[in-house]
Amino acid sequence: MGLIRLRNLVRSKEILLRNMSIDIGGMRIKYKDKDDTFLEKHLVAKEPFGQFKAWFDEACGRKEILEPNAMCLATVSKDGYPSARFMLCKGYGKDGFKFFTNHGSRKAIEMSANQNVAATFYWEVLNRSVRIEGYVDKLSEEESTKYFHSRPVPSQIAACASYQSTPIESRDILCERERKLEAEYMIPEKEIPKPSYWGGYIIRPRAVEFWQGQRDRLHDRIKFRKPAEGEVVDGKLLHQGDDGWVYQRLSP
After folding, report:
1. Can you give the residue ranges of every domain in the chain?
2. According to the model, what pLDDT value does residue 67 have?
3. CB-based burial of residue 100 (10 Å sphere; 0-12 exposed, 13-18 middle, 19+ buried)?
4. Which of 95, 135, 195, 205 is deepest in the core (most CB within 10 A)?
5. Distance separating alpha carbons of residues 144 and 198, to the nearest angstrom
6. Helix axis angle, 141-150 to 153-161, nearest 10°
7. For all residues of the chain together, what is the average pLDDT?
8. CATH says 31-154+195-249 is which class?
9. What is the pTM of this model?
10. Residue 58 contacts residue 44 (beta carbons within 8 Å)
């Protein structure tokens, strides 16, 4: 009877899992007060990079935000299937946003077929997000090599040991590759050559949106973008920015 009861219990759980539908619609938190809005007059720059620096610096100053440079990078395959993953932004400026990865990874393969990408920074403590849409270019081999050798040695070895996104039989294989590389480079303290399959990219934005959450869900959204040919800046729905950018408020 004990075995039959156990089988029935397992069968009941399997049925429950197949039919499981968890309602989390009531999960929500309070954002900023109505008086704490993000208005056009609060912009510190009339182009996206200066505004990003102001928000990023504030995020860096909050100890609760452990990795303010974390961003979710979305790519699209040649067949139109999207994928997203978290990356660390390793530099930014008026030329764009930089990151580094394995050229054989899924993201890199997709970017080689379709240069269009999107990236999102989210700083929960500040109730702020920055959305970036644009296209990627590869960074120079010189810049990639310079950054590679600035990384901690264990990170350099990990980049050499892993053929990112390819199937692998077990973690033991990775650990064995790591041990061999450590014996070759760490004990004699030789410089680790950057793998040819590893390097950097830069996202060159076409649009950057700044989002700030509000308690009543009437969130603030101000978007910078490049104007379309012949588009008229009316000062109401569309405002003239600097360096060839325009900006507008979007409905939440």
Report:
1. 31-154+195-249
2. 98
3. buried
4. 205
5. 8
6. 120
7. 92
8. mainly beta
9. 0.86
10. no
